[in-house]
Amino acid sequence: MAYDQTSASGSLMTSDSAKQDYIMGIQSAHALEKQATQLINRQLERIESYPEVAAVLTQHGTETEAQIQRLDGILQELGSAPSALKDLATQMSGNAAALAHTVMSDEIMKNHFANVAFEAFEQATYRSLIAMAQATGHQHHVPIYEATLREEEKTFQTLLGMTDQLTVKFMELSNAGEQAKR
């Protein structure tokens, strides 16, 4: 993946403001990954009838922890740290979102749709970080973001590819009177 995004004028943005915008973007991505961890963990606690979904979530949970560590390293290099407030707020919203789906008779489907959408959101986030890194002269961060972007794209494609089969399995279990919702 080759991204080449400098400022609209084509020059590097080296102001303190540009650096702060970049750091804020990294902190937001960090908070997003913390939210993902909560969403994944809450879903894994409840999944009963869908081991194929649990396998994807478990794998991506491991990747997410590594992504958080990579973001921590970049923030440390830049003399910053994660935003405790952003991390807390997104973790709470992740737990709330997962909880909201538990009362629905098609919990697995609602979680699946949310997971697909979340992966798309993460892809946009890392594309933005790539552009910010390049625009602020932090080209050496780009391969780190590209690695994460590839993981998010792979998970997105895997989840999206499961949609038809998951839908049919949900309907089969439901029609047989078995545990279908989770």
Automatic annotation (TrEMBL):
Gene3D superfamilies: 1.20.1260.10. Coiled coil: none annotated. This is DUF892 family protein. It comes from Rubellimicrobium rubrum.
